[in-house]
Each structure stands twice: as structure tokens, then as C-alpha cells.
Amino acid sequence: MADEALFLLLHSEMVAGLYRAAEQGEGENGRCTTKLESMGFRVGQGLIERFTKDTARFKDELDIMKFICKDFWTTVFKKQIDNLRTNHQGIYVLQDNKFRLLTQMSVGKQYLEHAPKYLAFTCGLIRGGLSNLGIKSIVTAEVSSMPACK
What we know:
This protein is mostly helical. The protein is built from 5 helices and 2 strands; from the N terminus they run H-H-H-E-E-H-H. It has helices spanning about 1-25, 30-50, 60-75, 100-105, 115-130, and strands at about 85, 90-95. The protein has a two-stranded antiparallel sheet with strand order 1-2. Strand 1 and strand 2 form a beta hairpin. Helix 1 (about 1-25) runs antiparallel to helix 2 and helix 2 packs parallel to helix 5 (about 115-130). The longest helix is centred in the first third of the chain and has 25 residues, at about 1-25. The protein starts with a helix and ends in an 18-residue tail after the last helix.
């Protein structure tokens, strides 16, 4: 439980620190999001390497996505993805109805405009993991109501 709290605090401080530096003129907001996404990409690559070292090869893209939703997400966020949808043409929608990195914020719409900064690292995490599994991807996040995200 302590490691989870440390991760949440570290993530919050990474986001706050980057955006604080941007406000002081050392960068711009778009660069902060890119930097967070890049950090997540590298962490995702390393985590997937570690998590898949003893697993059999995946048959297809859907098996990889199921692994991301069950094993990867459970290890990182202590719960499975709530919903995985696909159009069977390479587009997957992962939905978490109570995303851990957003639950520390207000449940209402008060902080909705700040949510994307807290999802950039996670988008990079998924993209890095998929990259190491041989899938080139574009990962975006959408928040319509807190703390759920797609």
C-alpha cells in the first residue's frame, strides 16, 4: 500500500513540477505534456519487458490488448480496466471508471480542464508498452466525467 501512495505522490509532483517550470518561463504547456508522455513511454517499455519475460508469445493484437487491460493495468494501478472495446480494425478503447490518478481530484467538473495533464504519463506508459510488444500506436485520453477516463 505504501508503494501505491508513493507512486501517486511522485506522479502528482512530476506533473506539478513540470507545469510550475512552464509558468516560470522555462517551457510551454505543450512541451510539458510531451515530456510527461515521453517519461511514461520509457517507463512503459521497461515495465512490459519485465512483465512479459516469462509469458508465451501473443497470438494477435487482441491478446496483447487483453494483457494490457488485465495484467499490466492490474500491476500498475491495482485494478483491471473496466471496459475494452474494439472495432476490429485496429482501434481499441480502454475505459477505467475510477482511474487512480484522477480520484485524488474532485469528482465534479471543477477540475475537468486539468485532467489531461494527469493522463499524459499514462498515455506514454501504454504507448511504450505497446511499442515494446511490436505495435506502433497513437494513444489519446478523454475525460468526460471525473474520475473516469477513456
